[in-house]
Design goal:
Blueprint lengths: L35 H4 L3 H13 L9 H9 L6 H9 L3 H14 L3 H13 L6 H14 L2 H13 L6 H13 L3 H10 L5 H13 L3 H10 L5 H13 L3 H13 L6 H14 L2 H13 L6 H13 L3 H10 L5 H13 L3 H13 L6 H14 L2 H15 L5 H13 L3 H10 L6 H14 L2 H14 L4 H13 L3 H13 L8 E6 L2 E6 L8 H17 L15 H9 L2 H12 L6 E5 L5 H14 L3 E4 L4 E5 L2 E2 L6
Parallel strand pairs: 3-4
Antiparallel strand pairs: 1-2, 1-3, 4-5, 5-6
Helix pairs in contact: 3-5, 5-6, 5-7, 6-7, 7-8, 7-9, 8-9, 9-10, 9-11, 10-11, 11-12, 11-13, 12-13, 13-14, 13-15, 14-15, 15-16, 15-17, 16-17, 17-18, 17-19, 18-19, 19-20, 19-21, 20-21, 21-22, 21-23, 22-23, 23-24, 23-25, 24-25, 25-26, 25-27, 26-27, 27-28, 29-31
The chain binds zinc ion (2 copies).
The site of one zinc ion (ZN) has 5 residues, from loops.
Length: about 625
């Protein structure tokens, strides 16, 4: 009697239920552990299983053969493999393949590579399935060495027109950073499918060559959703959010419907650009498409809303989430911190700990930001200590940056200085820059000079530091020193970073640069500003010309001040939106003290909420006040 064994084809998912023993004569008690026939894990157990079969007069083919193969092949010099394979007199290769596939898709991927070598040593010639399973393992392990061995077989055995194999090889080379090899293969392909193109686009974009990726994308005769998504994601990763959005709109016009991966990429682009309207539309689309359960989509939605200044919407998404990851919690904590809601950030942190979630370095960055934005010195110190003490997370330079920021703003310049000089990582310009900012608030000229000495070496072409230093001298009435810093800046060829602000109205983004009089509505904007200024003066606004560093008459300085990009954007927004509507502005630099004071007054006059996202954080102006409570 020979039991027929289903030798699963390599593409068939193998699962081996124990056959029924209806006609077994021997009482079960006399069979020593029949279970072993199906569940052996070691060569010894396999030997025992074989003994059982022989004793009970059963064919060896009852054994789950892929299991036999794994054990034999992974055990050097174990001759049973050959014996059994010979005995069952089946083509051996499908058996090896089943086994290879199981290993390549399982948890011990590296065993697939060992098994492959064992198979070669038994003089078994691989077929195309073998190659594809081993390549799968190679991609997983980023193992280009064994990938090249498989590539050799592909060439030798004449599989050059097998698209699956060549695509897998391109994928492997690309993932391992060997783009030249990938390109060579791609160029040589007698025919390509969409997958080949998509892999090349993805890999080029991952390597940062987004132009090369787009060139290929443009050359594609036929594209599918994956092609579009790969290109959109590529643009996002390379910081080209505008291009990503443009491509997404084009994709929609072609009638393609975005999947979760596309949605995540587009939302990230919206977050970068502050494109709230599109972000909201994608949110609705995600709800309709059932993506709301996807944690990545929700996390990106939270990030998008936070970066667009809609804290409430971010909270709503967070609350609605059934399952949250550490990314969700960290994003929310960081968001609350950026919006100046330190108490809520701390509360959320505690809630997270209670829920059993373990904080990571990003969570701590958020919580330290919260402390630093609100001047919570003791809390900040405690969290900083807790990082390494309770969670074994070594503080990174960013964490030190937060602490220096916290201490220097709070006036503890000496403590901040000691932290900088004792930290185990070399302090960078950001750290000294925070310290310099603290020196300005505290009006400490000597400490500022020390910071400036360091910054002159670490980041000599950053105009911001010279401006702060010159301001510090000016406030101390040391005019000559102030002039000397400005001259130094000029001599070194340091250019002032032009300030710009954007505002999105009815889907269109409008950009303003400081002093901009080229805007089509410039005349009207200036007129409207003059009117607003009258009302502002009545409310006690006095222009703060100390933020202007140029040598000019006081009245000229004022005029200069009134042309700051965020002011232009705000007036434009007031002119082109309905009354009562929230105005959202994004600025590339830190908002200046004068604009901050002006926006507070204006928010009261026009009875509107004005949200400004600057380089560091959000300011939400409402009823004459700012959410930062002037601590920024
Ligand atoms: Zn300003
Ligand atoms: Zn503020």
């Amino acid at each position: 009697m020979l039991h027929s064994i289903c030798l699963a084809s390599p593409l068939h998912n193998s699962h081996f239920p124990p056959p029924k023993f209806n006609n077994v004569q021997t009482p079960t008690s006399q069979i020593p552990n029949t279970n072993l026939i199906y569940h052996f894990n070691t060569p010894l157990e396999l030997k025992q299983a074989i003994t059982i079969l022989i004793k009970t007069n059963k064919p060896l083919t009852l054994l789950p053969l892929p299991r036999v193969a794994s054990i034999c092949a992974l055990t050097p010099n174990f001759p049973f493999a050959q014996q059994i394979f010979n005995y069952i007199n089946q083509p051996q290769i499908p058996l090896w393949n089943t086994c290879l596939r199981n290993l390549a898709e399982g948890n011990n991927v590296i065993d697939a590579i060992f098994l492959f070598h064992q198979m070669i040593s038994y003089n078994v010639v691989p077929d195309s399935f073998t190659c594809s399973f081993v390549l799968k393992a190679c991609v997983h392990l980023l193992d280009i060495y064994n990938g090249k061995i498989v590539h050799g077989y592909v060439e030798k055995l004449g599989f050059q027109s097998n698209l699956v194999l060549i695509n897998a090889l391109i994928h492997l080379y690309g993932s391992c950073g060997a783009m030249d090899d990938a390109f060579q293969l791609f160029d040589k392909m007698p025919q390509r499918d969409i997958v080949s193109w998509n892999i090349m686009i993805t890999q080029l974009a991952k390597k940062g060559d987004v132009d090369g990726a787009f060139e290929l994308f443009s050359r594609m005769q036929e594209r599918n959703l994956r092609s579009w998504t790969a290109m959109i994601t590529g643009f996002v990763h390379c910081g080209k959010a505008k291009e990503a959005i443009r491509l997404f709109i084009e994709m929609e016009e072609m009638g393609l419907r975005a999947n979760e991966v596309t949605v995540v990429a587009v939302l990230a682009a919206c977050a970068d650009l502050g494109e709230l309207e599109l972000g909201r539309r994608i949110h609705e689309y995600s709800n309709e498409s059932g993506f709301r359960r996807n944690v990545h989509v929700c996390n990106t939605l939270i990030d998008m809303y936070i970066k667009c200044g809609c804290l409430e919407a971010a909270k709503y998404v967070f609350e609605e989430m059934k399952e949250r990851t550490i990314i969700s919690w960290s994003a929310m904590i960081q968001g609350l911190a950026m919006h100046g809601q330190a108490d809520e950030a701390l509360e959320l942190f505690n809630e997270m700990i209670k829920s059993g979630m373990r904080p990571n370095e990003v969570t701590f960055l958020g919580i330290l930001h919260a402390c630093s934005h609100m001047g919570l010195i003791n809390e900040g110190r405690e969290f900083f200590a807790s990082m390494s003490r309770d969670y074994k997370i070594s503080p990174q330079i960013e964490h030190y940056g937060c602490m220096v920021d916290l201490l220097s703003r709070a006036g503890l310049l000496q403590d901040a200085y000691e932290l900088i000089t004792s930290m185990p990582i070399k302090p960078n310009a950001v750290i000294w820059g925070s310290f310099l900012g603290g020196c300005k608030i505290q009006k400490n000229v000597e400490m500022a000079e020390e910071a400036m000495r360091q910054l002159g070496i670490l980041d000599p072409f950053n105009d911001g530091y010279y401006i702060i230093m010159s301001n510090i001298y000016a406030e101390a009435k040391r005019w000559e020193d102030a002039a000397r810093v400005r001259k130094l800046m000029k001599d070194r060829g340091v250019k002032k970073t032009p300030g710009w602000s954007t505002i999105t109205i009815a889907g269109g983004t409008h950009e303003f640069v400081a002093g901009d009089d080229n805007h089509p509505q410039a005349e009207e904007i200036f007129k409207r500003w003059d009117k607003l200024l009258e009302q502002m003066r009545l409310k006690g606004y006095v222009p703060n010309t100390s933020v202007v560093l140029l040598d000019m008459e006081e009245s000229e300085k004022e005029k200069y001040l009134y042309r700051h990009s965020e002011k232009l954007a705000l007036v434009f927004g007031l002119m082109n939106t309905k009354s009562g509507e929230t105005i959202r502005i994004m600025k590339n630099l830190r908002v200046c003290e004068d604009c901050h004071a002006a926006f507070k007054v204006i928010s009261g006059i026009v009875e509107r909420e004005i949200v400004v996202r600057d380089r560091n954080r959000f300011h939400c102006f409402k009823d004459g006040l700012c959410s930062c409570k002037d601590y920024w």
